[in-house]
Each structure stands twice: as C-alpha cells, then as structure tokens.
Specification:
Blueprint lengths: L3 H37 L9 H13 L18 H14 L1 H25 L7 H12 L2 H9 L3 H16 L3 H11 L1
C-alpha cells in the first residue's frame, strides 16, 4: 500500500494528464473545424492555393506529361514526380474535391504526429497529455491553418526528419536512407 502522500501525487498527476488529454483533443478538433470552415467558405478552393499547382501536376502525370509543365497563373511545381503520382492516385480514388480535402487535413495529422515523435521519442519523454495539448495548440495556430489551406507538406517533412534523426541515433542505416529519400 502506498502512503497517502504518494497516492495523492499520483492521482493529481493522473488528473492533470487526463485534463491535458481532453483539452488537447478539443483543441485538435477545433483546429480541424477551423480548417474545414475556411476551406468550405472560400469560393473556388483550391484555385489560388498551392493545391492548384499539385492538381495540375497530378493531371499532367495522369496524362503521361511532365508534372513540371507550368500552367498560366500557377507557380512552378517544386516536388519530385512521385509526389504528383500520389496526388493523382488520391484524386482518382476519392474524386478531386474530397481527395484535396483529405490531403489538406492530413497535414494536420502529420503535424500532431510530428509533435508526438519529438515529445515522446527523445529524453525526457513528455506525458501523452502534454503531447496532445501541444498538438492542439499547434493545430489551432494560424500557420497550421494556412499551411493546411494551401495543402503544404512541410509537416510531413518535419515528421520525416525527426524519424530520420531517430533512425540515425539507433544506427539503422537503411532506415535513415529511406526516411531521408522520402524527405528529399
């Protein structure tokens, strides 16, 4: 039987962690809601965003053309052709509208996953409540909403680089090369 002091510290820590989990979950859901609302309230989305560039490259790849052929009014396509192949697959399976919404919201999932990797994989490990709370705070931030609206893949790069540094620390050379090939 634990002394009363230790039991009270355990339960206060447990309650604080549970509260942080709930608050983090609410913030993550609010961030997703803000992003969906911003996307749905923008007439003509994804036109005028970076996703339009990705869609053009994906349709070019689907038509056996170069993804780097530039459409008038769009920025040049900056990523490897495999990226356009992946977007082409998503839009073929889900349709253009749903596929791009899933693509945009997956950026938020990658953000939370990157925060979890950074907070839990290195010493000292943060409790899961703190990880969810940090993920929620980052998810409702303006930069996360802006990157999600434009369909940027920076949060995926962040997670990939963290996984690469973990693999490098554990001396798994093949894993390191695969992660950094994905990243670059």
């Amino acid at each position: 039987m634990l002394p009363n002091r230790l039991m009270s510290e355990y339960f206060s820590t447990w309650r604080l962690n549970a509260f942080a989990c709930v608050l983090g979950g609410v913030l993550i859901l609010a961030g997703i809601g803000f992003c969906v609302r911003q996307i749905l309230n923008t007439d003509g989305w994804p036109l005028g965003s970076d996703i339009a560039v990705y869609l053009h490259a994906a349709s070019a790849v689907g038509n056996d053309q170069s993804p780097y052929s530039q459409a008038p009014g769009l920025d040049p396509y900056p990523y490897p052709p495999l990226f356009a192949e992946f977007i082409n697959l998503i839009t073929k399976v889900l349709g253009t509208g749903k596929g791009m919404l899933v693509w945009a919201l997956s950026g938020l999932a990658l953000l939370v996953a990157s925060v979890a990797i950074m907070a839990r994989a290195f010493s000292p490990k943060l409790p899961i409540g703190v990880v969810l709370l940090l993920g929620g705070i980052f998810t409702i931030s303006h930069i996360a909403r802006n990157e999600t609206f434009h369909g940027q893949v920076k949060f995926g790069f962040l997670g990939g680089s963290r996984r690469g540094s973990l693999a490098a620390r554990s001396q798994h050379r093949r894993r390191v090369s695969l992660v950094f090939c994905y990243r670059y």
